[in-house]
Amino acid sequence: MSSSGTASKVKLSSLFTNPQRPTSSNSKTSSKLSSLFIKNQGTPTSSNPTTSSENPISKVPIQTQLERFLETNCKSGNVTINEALHYFEHMIQMQPTPPIWSFNRLFGGLAKSKHCSQVFLFYNKLISVGLLPNFITLNILLNCFCNVNRARDGFVVMGSLLRRGYRPSTVTYTALLKGLCMEDRIDVATRLFKTMIKLGCQPTVVTFGTLINGLCRTGNTNVALRLHEEMANGNGVYGVECKPSVVSYGTIIDGLCKAGLVDKAKELFIEMKDRGFVPDVIVYSALIHELYYNEKWEAAKALLNEMVDQGVRPNVVTFNVLIGVLCRRGHLKESSDLLKLMIQRGIDPDVFTYNTLMDGFCLAGRLNEARELFHSIPSRGCEPDAISYNVLINGYCKNRNIQEAVNLYKEMIGKGTRPTVITYNSLLTGLFHMGKVQDAQELFGEMQTQNLLPNSTTYKILLDGLCKTDCVPEAMEVFRTLENCNFKISVEMLNCLIDGFCKAGNLEVAWDLFLTLSNRGLAPNVITYSVMIHGLCIEGQLEKANGLFIEMEANGCAPNVIIYNILMRGFCQSDDSAKVVELLHMMVARNLSPDSCTISIVIDLLSKDEKYRKCLDLLPTFPATSQSKMT
């Protein structure tokens, strides 16, 4: 390869050369398309992998080795970059040069092994030695572009196919559809699907499945369902009939389940069985997961039993999703029983299984059991990963056991597991909650030594922690630094500062920060209004607080019961019972239920008013569900 590095870029200009003239006189076109070039993702530098000192078959002629490599490794997709580089260099130096189909086998093996960047590099070299790609070469290149989220470059290759007189096949269109769906460009994918049919290219079940998967993933489940019916019956607008497969049924059923359309998913489940298809583990897992999620335990268990009776073996993913649902619902005994069941059935739990169960124990405050499970992971054939540590660290922090969390963090580093941003966010939250401001600041500095960039959540935690520990000037200094660095400021960050200045009695600065929201292109949310209205009420500026309340509703931000309570408390303290009653009636009109704080305000109001019976008659009647709270 060229030492200048130009060979590390895909020469898309070569796609437009005259197929009758395999020359290298296309440098001008190449420069025009330089924006489409691909950077080298890492060129292998190791030596020949088949030298006599390393390879036991070194005495076998290189030609025989090459044939075996192309026939076995490339066909199965078991290709390393070093092997590919060795044989590719040999192929382009052979006299005569091997036919293009030999290179296609190599490119196909690299594509199967997900070494797309290496395909781009080898394609460059192929062109540089005067070898012309054929239809299969270009399809492999197009597929590689689409697999690395470069569908636009895939269309460039499509243009080359047409210019060379080739007719794009179903494989070509399917690869482009997949690339567009991966980039969530579902509208373009749908138009392309229509185009291929109009041009007389018959979609296969894989083509339909690719588009259906993209539609489901982007929330277009109804469109996906219509496309499935078109595929099955051929009675839609396209007039194309293509019998579905187990995979296509699995795709649409999974999409329907994720969209909450379980009944429709079950209809398709019955339909596929009526058509003679045996549901696979993916289909069963999708339905069982959704039934568990909706707490239809008996139906889920019945389907799980049916799955086993049909000879379909649940896999680790099946159990993981079920354990996850049960843990989120707080059914830890059932989750533990499922773990035992999967072990009994010879299915090895993975680290994700243990992390999920640990998280369930932490959410329930059962940290000792979570810790025991954490320590048992190595004995069960797995190793704790960063997520394992994060789950337990977060559990300790939420239960205010910050010392155990810090000890676990140190153990994590000592064992060579690199902390993540989530690790530091959990620890910073825990340290600030315990008032350990200096320790939190030191940890934030330590985060930099791990080459981890703080995210928006990290800075929100830092600003909130500093403000709530009476370090508002330090918080403002951090905020100014972020502004100077052009960091994207969020409304959550400003909420922390506004709240901090309000509680520090510096309402003027808080108000100025509130007014800057629109200049920053940010809209105040319910928390922003809540904090600002509370600050104004504390300072006795009730009219200004009420004006902000009215503005809030006008801006489409619906007040919650907390904001009503804040305003009512303020007006109650100023003995304005009429305004309190008015706000209570507004709550009823907006279907907001009173909470214990509302009840306390009403009691205070009645106790202050000498004519409390008249005031009592003016109080609104809340719905029955609310009245029980008022009694």
Automatic annotation (TrEMBL):
Entry keyword set: Repeat
Comp. bias (Low complexity): 23-33, 43-56
PPR repeats (start-end): 134-168, 169-203, 204-234, 245-279, 280-314, 315-349, 350-384, 385-419, 420-454, 455-489, 490-524, 525-559, 560-594
UniProt-recorded name of the protein: Pentacotripeptide-repeat region of PRORP domain-containing protein
Signal peptide: none
Membership in a protein family: Belongs to the PPR family. P subfamily.
Pfam families according to UniProt: PPR_1 (PF12854), PPR_2 (PF13041)
